[in-house]
Amino acid sequence: MTRLFNLIAIQDLAREDIDRILDRAQEMEEISKKRSNQLGSRIMACLFFEPSTRTRLSFESAMLRLGGKVLGFADVGVSSAGGKGETLADTIRTVERYADIIVIRHPLDGSARLAAEFSNKPIINAGSGSEEHPTQALLDLYSIRKMKGTIDGMHISLCGDLKYGRTVHSLAMALSKYDVRIRFAAPSQLEMKPAIVNEIIRAGIDVEEVDNMADAVKATDVVYMTRIQKERFPDVNEYNAVKGQFRIRLEEVSLMKPDGIILHPLPRVDELDPAVDATPQARYFDQVEAGVVTRMAILDLILG
Amino acid sequence: MRGSSHSPLVIILAKTDSGKIRIVKIHNGTVIDHIRAGHALDVLQILGISGREENTVTLAMNISSSRIGTKDIVKVEDRFLEDEEVARIALVAPEATINLIKDDQVVRKTRVKLPPTFTNIVRCPNTRCITNKEREPIAPKYQVVSTAPIKIKCLYCWTLLDEREIVERFTMY
Questions:
Q1: Which CATH number fits the domain that encloses residue A75?
Q2: Which single residue of A129, A138, A290, B112 could bond B90 by disulfide (Cβ 3.0 to 4.6 Å)?
Q3: Is residue A250 classed exposed, middle or buried when 0-12, 13-18 and 19+ CB atoms within 10 A define those classes?
Q4: Does A119 lie in the same domain as A194?
Q5: pLDDT tens track, chain B, 173 positions
Q6: CB count, 10 Å around CB of A70?
Q7: Same-domain status, A193 and A88
Q8: Which residues make beta-bridge pairs with A102?
Q9: Residues from chain B contacting residue A89 (CB–CB below 8 Å)
Q10: Contacts of residue A130 in chain B, CB cutoff 8 Å?
Q11: Disruptive mutation site among B127, B131, B158 for chain A (greatest number of A CBs within 10 Å)
């Protein structure tokens, strides 16, 4: 097992790497409460070229709980990278001289991989275009393991915007390393990328595809809902044609297994009816908690 | 014409004493033989040969071959392909052989071989791929994920390209 350096994409990790992160996340539950100084001399730079609430704040919270320091920008408009047209490669070659680790979110696909090519310091991908969001996938796996006791043997529905939703791309790839069954549920315009479906089938995973919410939620252990990614549609008319098509209301919850759970990477718009929040299946706010401990585990494994 | 017809299309011909049709020999240059029938134009496109260059180009399509049934042949005078160009040919003509001719002699004969990865062959069709961002100092990189049919994957954004997209986009690069 090699030491973790960059975290760019889930497919760069073997199952034992993922299990090691999840095990460390579990250990971090206690440390996150007590706090520690194990990364006391380390600096983390957060470069957020796109808006973020949970990912950026949970990364910062994770670093602070481990005693580290944080710098960076959350509004690209005030940086040279945004306001002055600096290339990403130049921004990275600059910031790597200020920090021990760089966390990057960027609107273009493949941006984190470019950052890793130009940095001698570790890069963590906090969301690259519509392509990858590996730390979200890891916290999702941690949530499933914590809430259901296991990942192996689970039957999981990934629902909503499977074309532009980067969290489902990473989560699907991560799940393919376990003994699971996956159901993809999306309107025909927003189906999962063929390259990812091919990889998952090649990994020996039983895959099913449906195009409506009723079929999406039936008989699975985990229903993973996602927002339609308005900001990634090349054409607003395309967005208008699909918005509101995939929603979970009490009606859909009634079709679920009684012990099934609903997860969502958040933020939500209208795909999760607020009435669902009160049901025992709604676990998406508990899922948020996993963000800090999972990111603490990743920072500790890379820098510790 | 592509694929369905087996009647030969030959530009620049010579008749042998026995009356058989034969493409004229070249003195110096490259012969790309055993191109899958109907793909000679793709080979020219992927090599950036438009016909407006000074080189003499000889092209034969849908001629019989003992090895692959029917085949196309391209001969380019006074041009010697780089290894990278030979690798590109494998994307559209995986069975092709390359003969290097100098002073009427075949000095080197090789079969094309598809490398596992390619750099800089075409622009990624995904407009949101970082490789399409202006001024970023990187080149698109691709991994071959399937050989029959040919499919390559952008190593930055994971977009898949098939043979037609590769050929079409090659001329845009």
A1: 3.40.50.1370
A2: B112
A3: exposed
A4: no
A5: 343 444 444 445 545 555 555 677 889 999 999 999 999 999 998 888 888 888 889 999 998 888 888 999 999 999 999 888 888 899 889 899 999 999 999 999 999 988 899 888 888 999 999 999 999 999 999 999 888 888 999 999 988 898 888 888 776 54
A6: 18
A7: no
A8: A45, A123
A9: 136-138
A10: 128
A11: B158
Which residues of A are identified as catalytic? Answer: 54-55, 84, 105, 133
Q: Verify that B91 and B25 share a domain, yes or no.
A: yes
What is this structure's pTM?
A: 0.86
Residue B157 has its nearest CB partner, among A109, A117, A232, at A109
CA distance A238 to A115: 31
B53 located within any domain: yes
- Other beta carbons less than 10 A from residue A15's beta carbon: 12
**Nearest Cβ partner for B136 among A88, A130, A131:** A88
- The domain of A232 spans 134-288
The answer to whether residue A81 is domain-embedded is: yes
> Is residue A3 in some structural domain?
no
* Cβ atoms of A132 and A159 closer than 8 Å: no
Whether residue A5 is contained in a domain is answered as no
Chain B contact for A108, CB < 8 A?
A: yes
What is the per-residue pLDDT across A245-258, written as a single tens digit (0 to 9) for each?
789 999 999 999 99
Q: Do B130 and A109 touch (CB under 8 A)?
A: yes
Contact list in A for residue B157 (CB cut-off 8 A) is 109-110, 129, 131
Does residue A250 sit at the B interface (CB-CB below 8 Å)?
A: no
The DSSP bridge pattern shows strands B57-65 and B29-36 to be unpaired
